[in-house]
Request: fold
Amino acid sequence: MNRRILKTFTANTLAVTALVAGTTLISPALTYAQEAPDAAQGEEATQDPPIRGITGTVTFARETRLKKVELVNVIVSVEGLRLEEDALAEALESREPSVIDQEDMTFVPHVLPILIGEAVEFNNGDPIYHNVYPATGEPPFNLGMYPNAEPQATTFEEPAIVEIKCAVHSEMQAFIVVKENPYFASVQEDGTFTIEGVPAGVQQLQLWHPETEPVTIEVTVPEDEAVEIEAEIMYRLGEGEE
Reply:
């Protein structure tokens, strides 16, 4: 018989409904439900080996006028797991270079998740000068005025959310989300995400967007398969919004 584990969390600036195996739960707070697998289920033939981790879909509950409210700016991450030095070095070696481009006086991407110890390269694709610096977060740096074709880089050593600005163009803004383990993902345009290799057991899964406070839900990751999550993010309308 399937068991359902139901936990409810409060949220100040958004509501999330997370569900598994088709269970639909709607609440003004953060509600999460997970059904344990039926031990009596027979073996099913699969073409690919099972992937342990967390996969799912994120959607917005309603439209909003908030700027830059896009699914690709949602970061999903496992919190509370810090890697040992050797494991961190191995994870860093396996990662692709992280880059923020400056195009048409816009940082691309707007939100970039990285692993601690990782360097970010700032490319200037505009025919004008830019000056990249952190408005909030660590480390303090100022890349100075630099033109097209002269990329600059800096390394981020501690977990943080770093707001990036341009000293020349105040409207330019980006966020670098520095994580202490590699179990994170940016949500795709269609709302899907996959985090592979998450250690089995009870994990704390965080959903973060620059326009909201982060929300964390508890997820149980099986030993030999991925757990599927569906999360709905709802923004509370600000004054003057409809």
About this structure: Residues 82-182 form a domain with the Immunoglobulin-like fold (CATH 2.60.40.420). The chain has one helix and 19 strands. The first helix runs from residue 85 to 94.
